[in-house]
Amino acid sequence: MYFTAAWDPGSNQLQTENSYLDQADKTSRDSPTQAKCLIDPTNAFIAMLLYDGIVTIMPLISNSKKKALGSFDFIGGPIPTRISDLFIRSCTFLYPHRTDKDPARLAFLFEDSQQRVCLSVRALDYSAGASGESGSADLENVLAMRDDIELGASHLIPVPGPVHGILVLAETKIFYFRDVDDSPIEQPLQKATQFVAWTELDEFRWLMADEYGTLYLFMLLLDDSKVSGWKMDALGKTSRASVLVYLDGGHVFIGSHQGDSQVMRIVPGGLELIQTISNIAPILDFAIMDMGNRSAEGQTNEYSSGQARLVTGSGVFDDGSLRSVRSGVGLEEQGIVGDMDNAINIFALRSTPGSKYDDLLLVSFINESRAFTFSADGEIEEQADCLSLRLTESTLLIHPIDEHHFVQVTPSSARLVDIESSMMLDEWSVPTGQSITSASASGTSLLIAIDGLELGIFALRGKMTLRKTRQFPEGQIACVHVSEVAPHMCLVGFWQSHEIVIVKADDLTTMKKQRISDDPTSIPRSMLLKNLLPSNNATPTPTLLVSMATGEVVTFAADPETMALSSQKSTVLGTEQANLIPVPGREAGLSNVFATCDHPSLIYGSEGRIVYSAVTAEKATSVCSFNSELYPGALAIATPEDIRIALVDAERTTHVQTLHVGELVRRVAYSPSLKAFGIGTIHRRLLGTEEIVRSRFKLADEVLFKELDSFDLNEEELVESVIRAEVKEDEGDLVERFIVGTTYMDDNEQDDAIRGRILVFAVVTGRALRLITELPVKGACRALACIDGRIIAALIKTVVIYALNSSRLQKLCTYRTSTAPIDLAVHEPTKQIAIADLMKSISIVTYRPPSSDTPHETSHKLEETGRHFQTAWSTAVARVGVDMWLESDAEGNLIVLAQDPHALTADDKRRLRAISEIRLGEMVNRIRPIKVTVAPTAVVAPSAFMATVEGGVYLFGLIAPAYLDLMIRLQTALAPRVASLGNIPFNKYRAYRSQVREADEPERFVDGELVEEFLNLSASEQEQVVEELGAVAQEKGGLEGIREMVESLRRLH
């Protein structure tokens, strides 16, 4: 299938020029290398290599004979032509010696039946057809042929005039042929390598990239206008290139599938990185890390909030990395105020009474403060003396009391300032030898802590009046807060206590105490009482947020009158304390909260719940609202290096953080209790001309991914599977262990040869790995799982259950599979195990341990209770519902299989039926089931995440039965209305397709991306769609109901 597209600079979108044409041929063998599309240097022909031994020719046709050479009006129809050259490694059009006379020539690098590498040149004989008819083409005329090319040859590069010819890239040499029949000019490489991509700089120079991420500059050397040799220099290291594009001006684009794509500039002495384009493909494995929900209330759907993270093992070898994928709020940077190191606080003010805009930023440092004014046209000027501000020491608080007054609190004093006159109206200073350690203000009240031992409250009405001071038996004060939501009360947190004290604002007497945590390290460090959630009542219920030193944020629903606290919830943002800063919300009367810590987050209310969204401000130390005339609705952000102005995105998007590992991350397992990852890696390096591959199992910290410990596997041994499981040791209590399955790369084919190992690790004091036991096995351990405290291992043609007794693995029972088991999915309550077979789809076995009810049965058993009898090249499986399993195959399809335990016959009960199927178009490497709590009225219940070779992360959900018919009808109505690139019909694109069967449309599967396009239709089109849906749409609220339903689906991600 192919189509042509052009870039529209007006809309900044690709536009379809020629609709798709399907070139699928079931009788032909796929090309052994990637499908190729070649363009003749004279722009006369396009050649496509889709199938082995077939070259599809398409003429580029001009309606006028007077048009310039190389220009055309449209692309002619495809003409397949057969050639005898098979197993083609590379091919290219050659530059013509005489543009107006020479026929188009194609060079082929291929492998013959005797495994010799050959080079041939064929002339293209094309005859245009009559009007309305396709022409004819053949490549039977072989102009030259030779079969003595180096075995490691991989690429052909055409050489333009004036020298002409062809370059052949091999592993140890590069050959230049003027004509294929002539003797080549060849030179050995300094060291052997495998070239993977190239691009032309000019007629004598090329850039080449190899398998190991090295970029080379290649140049032909001339003697009397003839090639005498060549020279090649290594420029530097890049991502492993899939494609190279020279952008002119010394810039080159390195497009990488195995790592991040890059834009590099060639500079004297090497390369300069200009831009990195993030890429998480291929995803070999991933783990669901729920940092946002470790309270005792159970798991909720936090992925859209940004605090739950997917951690993926991405990239290949040197480009290998761990990627933290979160859905959160982005910040669009507007500018940098200036480079200022170690700013600790930032505040905004309005220097003119009655102004609608902030025009002054006060930046606080360790021992000074600096003031900056902003003009309407963006001019920034630092002020040495401004509004009677004390700039000789750090600022703890700036609080605008009203349009005319504000209060500034520093460690030594608090001063009240009149904005219009820039005069200080009053000042209160601490006694000599003491200092203010924390402060909070609301309205006309100011609350301060002196030396952390004494609490004082001031009234701010034209002057500063100290109303009351008090000391507390609880010890040193850690933080204080007074809020406009409940101005008659104050909150106090202590260093030695795990509780907060609520006191009256008028006399500071204690009203009540609230215990926050039983953890002795959980010290309250920041508090905020704000209205985050809208309410149907006249008085909304405010939310109290308490930030702890451990990185937790604890929330309560608060009664503004009595300060009765309820609905305690705990959320972990990171490992450092979060500073809670209020910023304006999107709705009047509501606030958002910016939490600055090692994982900055925006906390806000949505759909009746509090949402924690990651923000792209990783280095933020402080923020404040900065609603300036030039940047309305912006935030000012202080970082350790500078001050930035940014706008908050209106919608959540996906954010990716990268930790470069430099090794292929093959497997990832996560332990919430250990707060660590178990990672199986494969490292590749060149030692001389030999490629050395070694594998390790690592333990890494959950936040910084810092390596805590590692275990080296044997030579020629590779990690295949890693899980974290709770295992019974000696049939006792469950203990947490990491289990690793391996395989050996050697070619020992003996029946009794050891082909892999199963290793069991414990994590001991100091978060170090200790090997508990190992078991050599005769098959590669492709997958691992755990059931009833016992280990399940998927070996070649066998699934085995082991028990861990006396630090040894004891075989309990086995199950023979059809070919090779690829993946396992376990459902503990029913003791069911789904086995994804390499070729024979899914089988379900039930584990039956000995039971006290049947004393004569003393053996463990694996009994097959279900099977899908169709052929499918499985890649992953997961349980997604009651007697429902989601399977992916190597051909890019998804299948939902269901088992009916209430069927009439035993065979029907055993049979797995495909109840839903769709073509995803990408091969899924891993499916991870999730358990989420959804509202009874939810349209979709998220059930699993899927990760693909192409770097896609998909959310799979089950549609509520009440909405199934509506969703399918909505998809059918939208399919012809939503245009796709190439005008590919939705049903054809998403229909199940394999080597043995093709469907006409997806079966009981809904593409969420297509359904969300309903919101992008015009109002009239939306009305037409709803009218087409008929009564089923009216039952759900008509147009408004459908719109709300689709909006709720969009919020899932």
TrEMBL record:
<dbReference type="InterPro" id="IPR018846">
    <property type="entry name" value="Beta-prop_RSE1/DDB1/CPSF1_1st"/>
</dbReference>
<dbReference type="Pfam" id="PF10433">
    <property type="entry name" value="Beta-prop_RSE1_1st"/>
</dbReference>
<dbReference type="Pfam" id="PF03178">
    <property type="entry name" value="CPSF_A"/>
</dbReference>
<dbReference type="InterPro" id="IPR015943">
    <property type="entry name" value="WD40/YVTN_repeat-like_dom_sf"/>
</dbReference>
<dbReference type="InterPro" id="IPR058543">
    <property type="entry name" value="Beta-prop_RSE1/DDB1/CPSF1_2nd"/>
</dbReference>
<protein>
    <recommendedName>
        <fullName>DNA damage-binding protein 1</fullName>
    </recommendedName>
</protein>
<keyword id="KW-0539">Nucleus</keyword>
<dbReference type="InterPro" id="IPR004871">
    <property type="entry name" value="RSE1/DDB1/CPSF1_C"/>
</dbReference>
<feature type="domain" description="RSE1/DDB1/CPSF1 second beta-propeller">
    <location>
        <begin position="339"/>
        <end position="646"/>
    </location>
</feature>
<dbReference type="InterPro" id="IPR050358">
    <property type="entry name" value="RSE1/DDB1/CFT1"/>
</dbReference>
<dbReference type="GO" id="GO:0003676">
    <property type="term" value="F:nucleic acid binding"/>
</dbReference>
<dbReference type="Pfam" id="PF23726">
    <property type="entry name" value="Beta-prop_RSE1_2nd"/>
</dbReference>
<feature type="domain" description="RSE1/DDB1/CPSF1 C-terminal">
    <location>
        <begin position="695"/>
        <end position="1015"/>
    </location>
</feature>
<dbReference type="GO" id="GO:0005634">
    <property type="term" value="C:nucleus"/>
</dbReference>
<feature type="domain" description="RSE1/DDB1/CPSF1 first beta-propeller">
    <location>
        <begin position="2"/>
        <end position="278"/>
    </location>
</feature>
